[in-house]
Design a protein that fits this description.
Elements (H helix, E strand, L loop, with lengths): L22 H9 L11 H15 L8 E7 L2 E7 L8 E6 L13 H11 L2 E5 L11 H16 L2 E7 L1 H16 L5 E5 L10 H9 L9 H16 L25 E8 L3 H13 L4 E10 L10 H15 L16 E4 L1
């Protein structure tokens, strides 16, 4: 398990020093200035561009015991079974990110394989329907169907996702708690948890991160992008008040599954992730907050270009494994995550 104590990231509010990305992040953006998609709103073009970038940065695929495309209770999915299936009674449900509007199982193939191999359990990656064709709550309902199958099939089920996928994972955990369905752990990787675009953290990000990574308007364009993504996923603002759309709106988080939350220092979503972790802690939910200095949103899937993406995943696996049984004996290279545990 990661270390039990470490300093949290400093709040953005009031900081005047320029934000400093890791050397690998800086070099990547210098070498690939055309990878930015913030100005792309045509859905077909956006999906094509993000897929091309995602396949290019995911890295070489790890060998794995078996990969199968399946349909589970009417929902498309892909299963990953490691050669060393040390946790045969555990299912790790993976929900990919992409602003609820892009991303696919191929882009996240390497991440899914890595989780399966390092956790020693079956990973089920869910190919949920994307917006705008399928706005909220379609994706959540599809995940819920697969979750029902997993609970009926395995002794332990963990829910996990990154970015918008983490939103769905968090919402499914809330729904599961209310339905009395036990979830072993929830893993939320740089999650989207608050539909509000006027939080102090997001407003500060707009100015402090302009410029950043060679983009003069990085902060403002990122802020506008988040607003647009919410408009596409949940067009009706009133529906965003539901905790199943915006987990931060939940009246109480008490009784939720133990949580592991991952943040990247230079991410507009870091503030809400840290705030959600604080709420979980206050409501008595076991929580490990893993923060990665110098990193950006989406870094964990960039295993082909960022070395810390690989070591970070090992740290994440160690945290999640503390909630699963049996825990296989393995050693992993420690990643320089800043960790809070309670």
């Amino acid at each position: 398990m990661p270390g039990s104590k470490a300093s949290a990231h400093p709040d953005l509010t009031g900081e005047t020093d320029p934000p400093v990305p890791s050397d690998e992040v800086r070099q990547y953006f210098l070498d690939n200035p055309g990878d930015d998609t913030d100005g792309v709103t045509d859905m077909a073009a956006l999906r094509a561009q993000t897929r091309e970038v995602g396949l290019r940065v995911r890295g070489d695929l790890e060998p794995i015991g078996a990969v199968s495309d399946v349909v589970i209770r009417g929902v498309k999915a892909r299963t990953y079974r490691p050669t060393n299936l040390s946790r045969p009674d555990v299912c790790f449900l993976w929900i990919h990110g992409g602003g609820w509007m892009h991303g696919d199982l191929d882009v996240y193939e390497e991440v899914s394989r890595a989780f399966a191999n390092e956790l020693g359990c079956e990973v089920v990656a869910i190919d949920y329907g994307l917006s705008p064709e399928h706005p909220f709550p379609f994706a959540l309902d599809e995940v819920w169907s697969v979750l029902g199958w997993a609970v009926d099939t395995f002794a332990q089920v963990a829910l996990a996702g990154d970015s918008s996928g983490a939103t769905i994972a968090a919402a499914a955990c809330i729904r599961a708690r209310d339905a009395g369905i036990p979830i072993a752990a929830q893993l939320l990787i740089y999650p989207v948890l608050d539909s509000s675009d006027t939080t102090e953290f997001k407003q500060s990000f707009r100015t402090r991160y302009s410029p950043f990574l060679g983009q003069a308007d990085f902060g403002e364009s990122t802020h506008q992008r988040i607003k647009w993504i919410w408009d596409v996923y949940v067009p009706d603002p009133e529906l965003r008040e539901s905790p199943l759309a915006t987990p931060m709106r939940a009246e109480s988080l008490r009784g939720l599954a133990p949580a592991v939350i991952v943040t990247a220092e230079h991410d507009i979503l870091r503030g809400e992730a840290e705030a959600y972790a604080d709420r979980l802690r206050s409501d008595g939910v076991p929580i490990q907050l893993l923060g990665f200095p110098g990193q950006i949103h989406g870094f964990l899937q960039m295993r082909g270009v960022l070395s810390e993406a690989r070591t970070a995943l090992s740290s994440v696996v160690a945290a999640v494994s503390s909630h699963l049984t049996p825990e296989p004996a393995r050693t992993a290279e420690a990643s320089p995550a800043q960790t809070k545990e309670s």
